[in-house]
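Researcher: We're teaching a course module on how sequence relates to structure. For the next exercise, students receive a sequence and then see the predicted structure as tokens, so they can try to spot secondary structure elements on their own. Here is the exercise chain.
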Amino acid sequence: MSTSGQTSVSNMRAPGASRRGDTKRISGRRFGLGGSVHIVILALAILLWWIARDMVAVSRTLTDAGRVQFSLSDELAGKWRVYSDAELPISLEVSGPTKEINVFASSLEQVPGRFAYRYQITPGDLAGLEVNSRRQLTLTVDLRRVEATGEAVAPSELAVRPQADSRVFEVVLEEFVQREAYFDLADTAKGQIQVNLPRSDGRQETRSYSYTAEVENKNIEVYGPYSLVTELVDQAGKARLKLTIDAKQAVENVAKTEREPIEDVLRREVVSVVPLVPVEGVVVRSGENKRQITELAVRLKYDRLQDYVQVTRDFPVEVVLPNWLAQKSARVENLPSFVKVDMKVLSSQQTSFTENHVHVRLDLSTLSRGDLTNIEPIEGTALKRTKVLNWYYSLEINTERLTYEFVSDRVTAEQYLPIGEITIVWTE
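Model: And here is the predicted structure for the students to work with:
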């Protein structure tokens, strides 16, 4: 018996079988590979565009990114000054790759004025220019004449130049002048001082002296820009320089430096060297050689005052308590309301011998808890009390209104009068 039909072998297509399924699988693989290539090509195109964009040479204006600096040559320095702004902003024209331009612009924003040009003014620039009544002249500088400073360094890939729109700058110069000058001591040319002199008993004696002060240097002048010097000139045409003397400090300095008693120093003439208060832009010169000076010698003479009259008056007592007692509402008992003050003052100052200028104080501000002994409670209350001995009334005197001496040489302002015994009461 025979059997007819087709025999199928594994993994082999039978004759006449369909190829559609295989074709679909191959097409799918090709499509997946082609999509990946397109993505890679697109990414490369973007990268190349990005690189090309930063490498393309462009031109850009950086507004006020640079500076132009004006200076004077050695021949003009000390004779003229730049009266207008010595540094002016300027815009820059920058050409080169975009990336380098951006980096360069960012660096200028972080350090304004780093990229600068300069122009040095010489005597030739001033030739033929007219000086006005204010001793000023105006110089015109063409932009093409400026040159880059050492700090004006740009990347080699960039070309940098000043913007051509602003070709001309106007610079105003001011001339230096000299004027005869004098020192005005004003209210300190003469006056009165009070000094404390040591006594044999270890305390201080207050004495009053009058003084006169005179500037030793006579041939004085000022030199500087016209406008600054003119501000100092008075109606007589001389420059007035203010000078202040501390006559008391001067005699104390001499006594300390020369190790001499103040009382002996006051008997002779004192020379005090006073530093000058500088006037910006103006030089003070002295002598025939016009030497600049920064200090001045002042001569002072002292005379002990004798025109005193005796004055007497009762003044109220002011108590000054330490904080720890003030917080406990402390009070001082068996204390007189008024204390008599006997002094000598200048006859012209008698009307100033009042409560406005003389204060009597019982100053207990340095009293500590440890200084108090025999503290006892007050029966039936929350109060405590103690007695204090060996304290003094003191005087606070306005020395600007009163030049004084004491009637008794045993008295000082710090220890005017012993208080005897007082009682302090406070709430514990």
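Model: If you want an answer key for the exercise: The chain has three domains: 55-166, 178-304, 308-427. The helical segments are 20-55, 98-110, 123-126, 226-230, 247-258, 262-265, 323-326.
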